[in-house]
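dumping this here before i forget
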Amino acid sequence: MPDLARLEAELRSLGDVVVAFSGGADSAFLASVATRTLGADHVHCVTAVSSSLAASERIDCADLAREWGLRWTEVETDELSHDAYIANDGDRCFWCKTSLMDALAPLAEGESAIVVLGVNVDDLGDHRPGQRAAAERGARFPLVEAGFTKDDVRAASRALGLRTWDKPAAACLASRVPYGTPVTIGVLGQVERAEAGLRALGFPELRVRHYGKVARIELPIDVLPRAIERRVDVVEAVKAAGYSWVTLDLEGLRSGNLNALL
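structure:
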């Protein structure tokens, strides 16, 4: 596992930082280590709030900030004001991160700080135009610079006693919408309601992919039998969100699998 001291050294070299804090395992680890290393006065953790952020994730960000003593702020982003974001082509994430940087850059400038994102080494191998947008605006990726993979982040988080060490990856709600299907507040809300309904049934790790009136549910392979056993409850929960047909993907949960269609 990469040396935590290397990450701490990377952060010290940056000075004051603004952490893009989504509450996921990566950004939570970065926020915690940065605050421990630099002190809360030098680390501003900021959560971007929009229709693409699930309400449960927003609440967890607030809880983590309180539990860990983070200096924390919410800012609203307006990615849905970009026609290119709504159109949902292969560069949707570029416009999302552009909106994020539009919100974070003034905060960072006012504090003479650098924006940092919880991108890890494994993220570099996927289609992530958002990383390009952030880097072009001067954001830094300390986890990459210190050599941390996703597994490294989870192992180090566990060693530090962070409850996010095994938090399921969430990603933004727009990642559930196939490229070419317009992203709207209505669609995002429908996905969020369906996923919330399934989590209430005891399925914490999942994706509900949106195909108009059809919902394609992705769950870990070992959970599929339980979903079949609770078929009636699963169908009821997803239809309550507004879908007419409910399907279960037998290939299981694959983060970012819609990128394979590009």
